[in-house]
Each structure stands twice: as structure tokens, then as C-alpha cells.
Protein 1
Amino acid sequence: MKKIKIITMIVLIILITMVSFFGVYTQVQNRMENQVRDYALDMDLGGARYVRLAVNTGSTDIIKDAEGNEVQTEEEMTDEQLAENGYTKETVPNNSAESLTVENYEKTKKIISERLESQGIGEYEISLDDETGTILVQLPEDDFTDNFVSNINTVGKFEMIDADTQEVLMDNGDIKSVNVMYGASSSTSTATTVYLNVEFNKAGSEKLENISNTYVETTDDTNTTEDTNTTDNTTNTEAENTSSEENTTDNTTSSETDSTEEETTTTKEVTLKIDDEEIMTTSFDEPIENGTLQLSIGNATTDTDTLQDNLTQATAIASVLDSGNLPIQYDVETNEYILSDITDTHITYVALAVGIVLLIGLIIFVIRYKVNGLLSAIAFIGLIGLYLLVIRYTNVSVSIQGIVGIIVTILLNYIFINKLLLKIKNGEDSKKLETVKEGIKESYKEFFIRLVPICISIIAFCFVSWTTISSFGMVMFWGVALIALYNYLITATMLKVKAEK
């Protein structure tokens, strides 16, 4: 039974190590893909996207009627068509000279930073040229970078307008906050719908209630009755019973009444726009009294990828609306990806160097502590494999400082295992189970008491907004946690099983 227990644990360690170092590959569309999540690298290691935003210098043509009101046209009109309708065309710059101030440049920079943080992009760099208003944003490259860049210069102008008259009923000044929600579709319990939850302020709530009472679908019932009476010499002749039993009926009287019910449906609708782009046109089924409007984004779906796309789109819209309007219109002047100076080759060299040093240290374990050293060395390799998997699946952004944290964790674990094996070797009888248990207990007590100040610093580093420091803190946090938990469950258990009679 001792051998079976130890062999089982060794097989488990081998499986963890194989998955961590080599991955799990499955066939996807005629190619093999690793299903183990890759590392999240920071900009120093994984490269970065550089986005340069320049102040928009263009202009917009505005068409006005004879009274000076702005007119919306579906197609571009020629000068002759404008004259025929009594319209005039006025060219207005997208950014007025009065808006191009340092204060507005700073405000734009702040709003973009808020949008970055609201979309979960913790690591970024943003700089501003006060003279030209040019903003440079540096972002980590991942699956969501393109989506953010596509919305980075969105002004965020929200409008609810009358679908017929184009009158603006509500705007950004009525919004309190915007967030994303999702839940089961009303039509089916398996599909999920993503919602944009718009909460309005006090004035906006009152407007929304009035609008939801006005812009509804109404149905009028109209009854039309047509009576047609035809009487021609109305005569009711009663048939007399004769021997021949003749029945005579002259001049039949008929009276028919046709009744027709007609329904007339009248719909008043509102159109929701963001940056003059129509999101939807709708009416309200019932009054909205809670000051909250829920807008569905995309269709209800059971597909994970589609749901994620809808969530990403909704999050982008929510961050734009929640952060407020950009006071200045910007154009994306440059959008390019720049590789890191630290290549995969450099990282491979570091990993090989650490691996060689570790291998020498594990050989020393085996020589010095015999079987206990061999079991501890096997468990040590399993800890590294599990540690790397934890870093992947906890979305820790690995920086250069994070790599240093991994190396420090390996060093701390080596010190702990050496202390543990030395306690057992110097015990009364290293082959007895009681001696092993006592050695484990003393090792844990001495090692982790000395580690308390370091643990406090590590936890503090985890909450630092600077990614390079937080990366080191998170890597060390999971490392110390694994040293305590893994060695208790695996390393100590293997040593106790080996010492059992």
C-alpha cells in the first residue's frame, strides 16, 4: 500500500508537469491547438500597441431651413436641390477654435483613462502634448485591444430623439451611470441576453417617465355598421291547406345587417443615437417609473463566443457613456504594434539557466537525503508545474519583475524543503513516522513565522496600481500560498507515507 500511494502521487505530479510544460493539444479545424491558457505578458515582455490621437481638423456640412433649423436629409443634396427646398448649407469645423484649450486636452486625457480602467485595462501609459493636443496611448496587446482602439476616439454623445420630428428628448446630461447586465432570455431559459443598463438622474428619470407615457403604441377600435333593407311589396301570404296542399309565398322580404370592426394602430417612437449613429428605434409598452432603461445588445444566444462579443460591445458602449463626452473630436492618426526588446530567446535562456541551477540543487537533495531527497525533488518539480498553471489561470500579468518573483519563489521553496529534510534527518529516528511529523511541524512553524513580514509586503504590492510592482506581488502571493499548501498536501504526505511501517 505504501508503494501504491507513492506511485499514485508521482503519476499525478508527472501529469501536472506534462500539462504545464508541454500543454494539451486538440485538433481544431485541421490544426492542433494548445488548450492550456497562455501567459498574460505585460508590455515589457509581450510588446505594446501604440495609438496616436490627433485633434480632428475636419468640418461638417449642416443643412438648415429658412427658419434656421437644422434639417436631416437621407441623401446628399446638390446646390440646386437645396435652393428648390429653400435650404442653405453651412460648413462648420468639427472642433471650434474656442474648444481647443489645454483644459479640454487634459479633460480628454482623463476621460480616455477612465474608459481604459472601466474596460479592465489596468496596464497602460498615456501622455499629452499640451501644445498640439496630441495624445499617445500605449496598451498591452491582447484579444480586446482592437475593440478598445475602435472606440477610443468615440465622443460618446447620447441622444434620445423623436423618430418623426427629430426633437432631442434626452441627452448625456440626463445620465447618472451605465453598466452591463446579462440574464436568461424571456423566450427561452437556455439563451442569454446582454443588456445595457442606463440609470438616469432625477431630472432624467422624470423625462423618461413622461416619454414612456407618450411614446407608446395605441390602438383605436372603430365600428362601422351597414344596414340594407330591401322590401318589395311586402306581403306575407299564409298558405292555406287544401286538398292539393299548395304553399304560395309571394314577394319575399329580406333584411340584412353587416357590421365591420376596424382597428387603427398609431405608434409614436423614439430613436436612440450614440455619436449620431442610430442604435435602435422603439416605443414603450408601459411607463418607466424607476428611472432605468435596459437596452438589449445583440440577440439572445447560447454560444459562448457570441455572448462574449456582446459583452465586449456592451462594455465598450457603457464605458463611453459612463465617462462622459469628449470635449474635442480626435482622429486615430497612428495604430501600430511594436515588439518588445526582450524576445522569446532571451526568456528561454533565463529559463534554461534557472533549470540547470535547480537540477543541480535537486541532485544535491538526492545525494544528501537519499530516498527522502528523491521524493522531495519529484514533488518540487510538480510544484513548479502547478505554480505556472496557477499563474496562467489567475490572469496574472507577467512582467520582468514577475519573472524575478517566480525565481524568488523557487528559491524560497528550495530553502523550505532543505530545512524540512534537515529537521527529519537530525531527528531521533528519521525512519519513524513521529519524527517526520515533528520535523514537518517545526519546519512550517520556523519558516513561515520568519516569512510574515515578507507576506505583508507581498499583499501590499498586489494592490499597487503600477503593473510591474503588482505583477511581482501577485506572482509572489500565489507562490507563497503554494509553498504552504502544496508541500503540506503532497511533499509532507509522501514523506509520511514513506516513514509508515
Protein 2
Amino acid sequence: MIKIENATFRYGETREQCLRGVSLRIRRGECVLLCGESGCGKTTVTRLVNGLIPHFYEGEFSGKVTVAGRDVAETTPDALAGTVGSVFQNPRSQFFNLDTTGELAFGCENLGLPPAEIRERVKSTAAALGIERLLDRDIFALSGGEKQLIAIASAYALSPEIFVFDEPSSNLDWNAVGELARLMLRLKKTGKTLLIAEHRLYWLAGLIDRVVYMKAGRIESDRSAAEFLALPERKRTDLGLRALNPDALRPAAKLPERQSPVLQVSGLSAHYKRGKAVLRGISFESSPGEAIAILGGNGAGKTTLARVLCGLHKKASGAIALNGVKLSAGARAGPFYLVMQESGYQLFTDSVENELLLSKNRRSRPTPEKAEAILESLSLAEFRERHPMSLSGGQKQRTAIGTAMAHHARVLIFDEPTSGLDYGNMRLVVTVIEQLRAEGKTVFLITHDYELLLAACTRALLLENGEIKSDFLMMEENIGKVKEIFT
């Protein structure tokens, strides 16, 4: 079904080759996982299959890619749309409509199908994927998981034989990941061919047939699912791969010594348009050296809480104080720093190094020496001259984290800091958090990442419907609470 022969590719803006002599064959109906460290070439392989390379991404390409008997280099992406359905890491990047039903119909309309057939395809797609409840909805009012389901459904409506997924679970909560796994299993049972590039591996155990491991643009191994799942723990970590058995993980962060609270939040409420409450009477305190996870399903209010703390969203009531001094939204801009989930939104300069040196405040601007140390600590030194938008998703994420390290904020908030990161780079983020804690910073992590939670956090706040449902320390005796939340 998919045949890649000796493919080599270098993006136009880079010097190094991203793929080096890659050859891969995938049979009809197979589900194949592409895994490996960030930047190893997984996403580039998916772009070969859906025709974005060489038709959209400029660069030097050699080799041959055949999909369903068609030479991709001689077939435009729109002509491949009926054969290959693509679902990207961020589903919003592939939406063209404001409503869900219109989005499901959009691809069929582009193919010029009769209106009656389009209506039937939308109806049958929703029924086949079990998403009738999502029809006729405002697409931007959906949760992250629901957006991902709509992205898959819009591809499914075109009746492709092949589905290509690039980090499909990276921005989803645990419930949405389970729903995604069930939906993929439906696709597989109907005989579809699935190619999945992914870092979070545990949820794929009952779905995949083969696992292709890549490193530095090459295929290092091609194992059956059984062989891969039987790898010893040490071998998996040596390969830079995420946990295969999350149940074996335990809290690892050292709890800080008890200190007086530095951050006081009391009675915090916030609304969006039309007066709908998103946060309802949030109250808590935190001390220097804490790493606090903010947990909850998509739509629970986690990101809104982060935005209110940083002064990016207006609070309706309540107070936020540092060392007993209440701060206005403008006054919180300096001592609070937010690293956003979609890191590309806060990268502004023409190089990675300049991102770290960017500051309107000369007193808080890092020295070149500090910037160099941060680049080294995040394995970004070799990319210092690269334009941030030319980086992989994981490299962008680390660059945004580096900008947070470069400034003198006292409270740092990371929104899904390990989205799209492999095991090694997740450990780099854990090291960064430990460093910030040692400097007396207070760190908040909005996360759906079970591994990061247990590796880095000392405490957890569970949000539900805009309220704090639970507040507990990350200790062995509380592991049952954590597992219950993530089940």
C-alpha cells in the first residue's frame, strides 16, 4: 500500500539532511507506529506519504514514494486526498469552517461531489465514528479531544484507504486519548491502513502491528508489536522512548521543605463571553520550590487559570497576591511567566539564540553567557542560528521553555510543556523544573502527561468544572488518587 524507496530529503532552510536513505513498505490494513527522538524524521516520513513533500515543503528530495500504486512526486496532494487522509498534531491547523458539519462536508465539496452524496457521507461518517453528538456545533467551542475527532472525521468522509497521524495524542487529556484509541481501532477493523508518528506509546499497545524506530533520519529497526512491547525498560529508555507501562511509575520528585506561602490566590473567578463562568471561587497558596500540577479534563479551566494568574485574562472576582501584596493584572506581567501550549505563538525573532536574548527590560535581559548555558541545558546549542519556525514541534517547545528560564520571573507556568517531546527531552524538562525549584521559583505545570507528573511534580490541584476538586501531595500513598484521575 505504501512503498518508500531510498528516500532522502533536506528542507530548504536547513543544512543537514532530515532523511537519509529511508526505505519502508507498509501493507494494506497494517497499523504502523513511527517512533524515535524528537527531530529524528518521523514527521518528514508522514509528509512523504501524504504528498506535502515534495509539493508543499521546499527542499532537496531524492528517492521514490509510491502510495496505492501512484508515484507521489507525480501526484498532487489534492489528487491524493481521496487516498490519504491526514490528521495533524494541532487539528486547528487544518480547519476551514466555523461549524463541525461544514468541516466534515468541506473536503467532499472540494472534490465536486453532488450535494445529496455529500449529505449522505457526512451522516454516515458521523454514525460510523460515533460522533453524531458533535454535528452542528461551533468548531471552536469544542474541547481539544473533540477537535481531534472532527479532524479525523473530515478525513474519513473522503473515504481514504490510508490514514496518516502526526502526534495525534499530544494535546489530549486521558479521556480523549482513550476515545482516540477506540476510533483508530474502528478504522483498523474496516481495513484502513494506519501510519502513526507518536511519542506517547502506552495507549497504542492493542492497536499497532509494527513499530519502526528512527534515529537521525534513518530507520534503525523495524519490529513486530510483540517484540517491541517486550523490550526491557532499560532498552526503551536507551532508545529515548516513553513508558510502555505507566502503572509501574512512581512519584520521583523530592518534596520541598515547608516554607511560608509566597503566592496567595483567594476567591478567584473568571468568565468568558455571555457570562459563562469558567473559574468558580479558586483559592490556594503555594510556596517557593513547589512544582504544582494543574490537572483536569479538557475544558476544566486549567489554561484559563494560568491566563488569569499571568494577567492575560480578566478575573471577575478574587485576589492574587505575592508575599501578601495584591497585584493588578499589569503588575503580574513581570513576576509571572507563561509558556503557552502552542509555543509557536510566543516565538518572535529570527533565531533561537535571539529568542532567549529578547527582553524589553534591560535589567531582566539575560547575558550571552546565561543564554549559552540555557541552550546547552536544553540541547539547543546546535540550533542557535536556526529560525524558530523551522524547528520541529519538540524543539520549538524547548525554545519556549528556554525563554522562560532566561527571565527573572518568580512564578512560572508551563502549559503542556512536554507536548510532542520524547523521553530524553521530557527528562530535560524535568531537569529544568528541578533547577527552577532550586532557585526558589514556584512552578505550575498544566499537564496530561502522566510520566511528567510523576517525575517532576510535588503537588497536584485537580480542577473540575472550574473548581478545585482535590489538592494533594505527590507521595506514594497518593498514587491511587493519581491513577484514578488518569483512568
Protein 3
Amino acid sequence: MHPLPKDSFMDSLRDPVVRDLAWVIGSPGLLDETWPAYAGRVVDDVWCRAQFKTGFQWLAELDNTPHSLHDFIAQRPTRRLGQYFESLIAFWLAHITDTQIIATNLQVQNEQRTVGEYDFLFCDADGDICHWETAVKFYLQAQPLSEQQAFIGLAVRDRLDIKLNRVFQHQLELGHTPAGRAALPQGVVLKKTQAFIKGYLFYPVTQAGNFFNSVTPIPGVSDNHLSGWWMRHPVGSLLQTTVDSCWTILPRLRFLAPVRLDAEASVMRQNEICAALDAHFAVLDEPVQVIELQRNMDNSWREVTRGFVVCSKWPDINS
């Protein structure tokens, strides 16, 4: 498993939504932008990190007075993580110097049937019209294969290879179709079409407490992708980095940035997290994301690992 990246600036931010915004901008992407099939069609990490560093002062000011960001998100209420992710991107793009958003979620119709949509159309600082397809994804390795098809989404129907095939073979090709061109605002000619895809891959954890992950790179996946572990319920204990670790359970809209909690926050010990998982799976089959926490020098709690606990039947949850 790749260790959680250390970022002193990210670590300095306290507001959870501002931290999520910073994560959207500066976290490593899931895709390998040098993979031949994706070359030139992925928003690369170098550009994102440059934007992240350029935005340090802006993000720090937002962290002190986050009302504008909170209001922006509140105007777009959702329970879906993907829509929250898109709202953060929209707020970010609107604040990049010399960047103008042209449209978001612009539907493409063909004979009164929706065949797709442009997630983001904007004019960048170079004057180029850009089309971004965006997604934040969490996939679990369900087979011991270093291939995209081995990674399954939490809802099981979703799979990494299927998602990426749709992004690159359909969504990013919309601008080259008659219906896609007809949907563009008058005078708009696309110059760049790129995927902006972030998230985590989660690998099975063995009974010995070691992470299973083939050393062979996964085709099309960045070597720097964020990752965690997963295991099936029931669990006698969770893998701990130290004996002093504590735990928290994340709601879906808090899946993005590394967790930081105040010193007084309510956290769980090993026996408490296991009891909470037992109570959850007694009535539900939905996976639970859990965060291992350790005390920082200022006594606050910081994330050190994250993982999913899934039901005993996963991925055959309908059997």
C-alpha cells in the first residue's frame, strides 16, 4: 500500500470543506497520464500541484473565513459524493485567474434522447476551450490481478475498466460527434478534452496484517495513486499502525481529504470500532469506511490509514 502522502500545508488546514477543496486540487490522480491510450487526455499531477501551490494563500484565507465556500456548497445540496466533488471543482475553476466557466453538466441530446453531457466547459488562461470529464472513485481489488478489471466499486456494478472505457471512448469523444458539436454554445470550439479523475484503490489485508498488492503496475493507473485496505466482516480486530491508534467512521461526503479531528473529538478504541461494525452489519450490507487516527504533536487526531470493511458476502451481495 502506498503511504498517506504528507503535506504540511494540507495538514495546516482545519475546515473540513476547505480541506476537501485542497484535496481536489492537490491530491494525486488515479490515472497514469503517460499511458499511451490516455496521453494528452488526462489532467496531469504536475499541473494540479502547481495550481495547488499557487493557491496556498487563497486556501489559507478560505480556511480562516470559509463562508463563501460553505454557501456555494449549500446552494448545491446533495448526498452524492460525485456531485459534491463537482461542486468543489466548480468553485475552484471559478477562482482560477483568467479562467472562465462556460457551462457545467451540459447535456447532449440526439433525437430527444440524452446521449451524454459535458461535465465542465471552460476557457483556460491560455484562451483554450477545455472539456473536463470528472469523477471521484473508490475501488476495491476483488481479484489478485494487476489489471483494471480486478477493481470493483462499492456498489459492485461499477468496475474500474468499465468506467475508464466509458470516459475515454464515449464521454471524451462527445465533442467529435454531430450531437456533441450541436450542443456546444455558439462559437465554442474545443481545444482540449481531458479526464480529471481522483480517488483511492483499496487492497485486501491478510490475516497476518500485511497489505496484499502486486508489485506489477496496473495498466493505466498512476504509480502514485492513493490507496488503502479492505477486509470482510466479521473482524476480530482491525489492523493498527500502533497500539495507541483510535478509529472513526466516515460519512460518505467526508471521503475525500485526510481526516483531522480536534483533540476533544469523539473517537473509538479497537473494541468500540468492532462493536460499531457488528451493529452496522447486523442490519445493513453497505460497506463502511473506517479511519485509523493517531495523536499529533498538538494533540489533535490525524489520519494514518483508511480502509473499508465490507459484508461477509461482498462482492456477491445479492446472493
Protein 4
Amino acid sequence: MKSKRVLVVALVACLTVVLGLAVMIQFIRHKESDPNGKADNSSEIHDVVDEEKAREIEQKKKEEHGYLQEFVRITEDTYPEKSQRSLYWEEKECSDNALGIVKVPGISQNGSQDLSWFCEDICDWLEECIEEVPYEKAPWLYSEIIVMMPSIEESFDPSPYLKDGYNRDSLYEGLYDFVDGKLTSADYPVKDDAYGTLEFTDNGDDDFFPSIEPDCSYTTQDGITYGLVPVDRAAGSSYYSLYAYKKNKTTLVNPNPFLGRGGEAKWIEFIDDSNLGFACLTYNGGDDGLLFRSDNGGMSFVQINYPSAKVKLSDGTIYNPFTIPEKVWAEGGEIYLLAGQSPWTGDYYSEELDKHPQGLYVSHDDGMSFEYVGER
């Protein structure tokens, strides 16, 4: 009986030792994993941090989406409601916001010489945008505008004029210089001196041309007459075809010389009876004009842009008063252009010349581009 009790006591003692060793081993392992004796819950902390960051990112995306929607709303309310403007959007990747994208507006001007009007409209639009969505809240909205005018589609960055306090005059002048420079630096075809002489070709057309008086015409020394004939009219504008006739024989040279534009044809001229010719179409009630060039006797035309005279008014506004191409001629191996002011709104007066002046331009590449010479 006594031996049984001794055996039980021994077994209990062994179990106590074993349990003590197990507890000690667990304690040692815990200490090794956490020397400070604290519970290891780092994974839980990381999960909480990640969730908080995710919530912050989603909130930022929500705010940025609101800014973008407001920017789009203001822009679409502005364009194309303004006359002679159109708007399209180009979605691009953006690394400067949480959204990862931005919508870049493309603003088109249907007409080339009224730069003042075009730039003023953009300044008005941006002013309204930054009133509702300040630059500091969403600078990525104001890093690019796609400017579209005849022969150009270029990106303009307005942010330098917005980030340190909006300066309308600086923005206007910067935009004006940018667009004017692009309009007059486009790549044109390689110069070709061998234009040849205008020749009349009888293609069997009927006598339609003599029955309608052309709005303007040019007659060569050998009796070929080229006339811009109004063949359609809409919204106060005429649309033209170019006909030629000689001794009551008529031919259609070009059914659409002004590339789909309407207005009033003012003149057509061929340099020294060669295939090199120019024509002017006025629009906007006669306040503005477009210059067109042909090097194949009028069978095709391209629109030519000439630079602004950059006249500065007393309030600092820069504009081009010489909006109507009036005359093109050859002299001394160069082509010259004389441009005048609108008969309705042209009120620029030169104290030096004591008159309302015209603008003189010269071309060194047969009228494919021009540079401003000065007032005349």
C-alpha cells in the first residue's frame, strides 16, 4: 500500500516537471519572438494601416472625380455655345492624381485671324474654371489645353499663368504669342519655282458661268477669265466654285476653292499669269478674312496664315488689326501681301503715319508663309 502511494507521488511530480518545462519552453519562444514581452500583433496593425490608406485613396479619388466633373461641366457649358468654336475631349493617363486619368479639352477656332477673340474666350473660360475649381485643389486639370486652328493642333500649358496667382494679361499674351507663332511656322510644301503659265482647257462644260456674274475675277493677257461664282448661299454666306472661260467656252476649274468655307469672295489674283495664285474670302460679316493659295492654276487651294502685327492697346491688350488680305504681288523675287482693317470695326489709328494703316508682309517662299514687315 505504501509503495503504491510512493508511485503516485512520483508520477504527479513527473507530470508537474513536464508541464513546467512546457510552460518554460513556450515562454522562451515568446520572449525570442518579442523581447519586450508584448504580444506580436504587427500583422493586425499592418492590416489596419492598409485599410486606412485605402479609405484615404478612395476619398481622394472621389474628390478628384468631383473636380473633374465640375471642370467638364463648365467647359461644356462654355463650348460650343460660343460662336465659331467647337470642343472635343481627349482622355489621357495622369500620374499627378489618384484617378490616374485626366480629360484634356481640345478647343477649335474656325477662322485664323481673329486671335484676340479666340484668346479672350479662353481666358474667360479658365477664369470661370478656377473660380469653381481653384488651381491649388487640382493643378493636374490645368496642365494642358489642345489648341486647334487652321493647320495646327498643338498643346498649350496654361499652368505657369495660374499657379502663382492668376494673371489674365500674362495668360492672354502668352497664349496669343503661342498660337500666332504656331500658325505661321507650319511645314509647307517644298518651294517650287516652275509654276508654268495659266492655260485654258475646254473640258466641254456648258455655258453656266457666263449666265452668273462672278463676285470677283481675274483676266490674263491672252483673255482667259477666272471667276469665283456664288453657287449656293446659307446663313448670310456664299459658297463658291471657280470657273474659267475664254471666247464663250467655259470650264469648271474647282468646285470648292475655299475648302467648304462660306463668306464673300473679295478678289482672286494669279502672279504674272502663272499657275501661282491667291484669293481672299471674308467672313464674320466682313470683319475677318482668309487667304488662300494655289500653285496649280486654281485646281486646288490651301489656306495660308500670316502673323499678327501684335499691336498693343493702352490697356495692354495685344491684337491684330490687319484682318483682311487686300492684295498680293511679286516684287524683286519676293511675294508681298497687304492686309487692311475691317471696314466695320477697324479703328486702329497710327499717330506716326497720321492715318488708319495697313499691314505689309513679305514671303520668301512664294507665299507659303509670310513675315510681318510693318505698317504702311
